[in-house]
């Protein structure tokens, strides 16, 4: 490209139609900013979505887009990467779309390590269909479909991704411009499936569900921003840290200034540590944010073409393939 594009160049002319105050607006801003920062080429970038509030995303970015059916965005994205590995493919999904009807598709794109970025907007509710509880809704959540409180055990998206074999797992908050921007840039640069869970507020049906760690007066003690090679410390003055507790085989909070040697250092290649960090929950522990796991691995589409006689750069025409004389005759009985 001859000139660096600005964030506004990645914003489409479509009217953005989310509820006023929805966290999706902040995510959209962060994504267009990230696309500008990494120098994304619009004609080589594709956003694929399923069904839900988040699924409107492809209409609002000035790239190619595909609004697919419920839960099937990962399957479409896999086909895109196999057909044209040079495409920069982003999947936008929600906790309902991605983890309920689309759970099976999400699992397989993760284990295959397809070269796409998956942004899972987690608001712990079905927003588009008027507030039913979702796979990530907490126990006791009252919704139109569970007026007595949900009794379903919720899914932890990060733990799900880890169990499916994901090699890149990150977390961010919708309105955290710096934190989300850093995660998006890291996800874009990863060669394989980059799974990003975004804590997103639904102002209509589940407003304030993340207040326990997003409120200004709580975030310092309730958020752990992890960075590879740096101590796992948090608090306004970084006076708290996470250490390993051998008897329970879990993490514990320690005084980082009194016991600096006990504080763990973040290793984003360590799957065991990633599992422990993903399981942390307030009020006893902070919520881990940032790149929690990043391991090298061969992207699915590269492995596919490494074992196929088909050239990566194709010169044939679709019309010619459709007109081939591959016919057969069914014998009369």
Spell the H/E element sequence: HEEHEHHEHEHEHHEEEEHEHH
Oligomer: single chain
Task: Count the beta strands.
Answer: 11
Task: Specify Rg, calculated over alpha carbons.
Answer: 22 Å
What is the mean pLDDT?
93
- Strand content of the residues, in percent? 15-25%
Helix content: 25-40%
Distance between the termini: 63 Å
* CATH topology category name of one domain: Rossmann fold
SS summary, helix count: 11
Low-confidence runs: none
**In the CATH hierarchy, what is the architecture of one domain at level 2?**
3-Layer(aba) Sandwich
The largest pleated sheet is described as:
8 strands, mixed
Q: What would you call the structural class?
A: alpha/beta
Side-by-side strand order of the widest sheet: 2-1-3-4-6-5-11-7
Let me know the CATH homologous superfamily of one domain.
Answer: Thiamin diphosphate (ThDP)-binding fold, Pyr/PP domains
**CATH level 1 name of one domain:** Alpha Beta
Shape: globular
Features:
globular, 11 strands, 333 residues, Rossmann fold, 3-stranded antiparallel beta sheet, single chain
Describe the structure.
The protein is an alpha/beta fold. It has a domain at 7-209: Thiamin diphosphate (ThDP)-binding fold, Pyr/PP domains (Rossmann fold). 27% of the residues lie in helices and 18% in strands. The chain is built from eleven helices and eleven strands. Strands 2-1-3-4-6-5-11-7 form an eight-stranded mixed beta sheet, sandwiched between helices. Strands 8-9-10 form a three-stranded antiparallel beta sheet. Helix 2 packs parallel to helix 4 (103-112). The radius of gyration is 22 Å and the shape is globular. The mean pLDDT is 93.
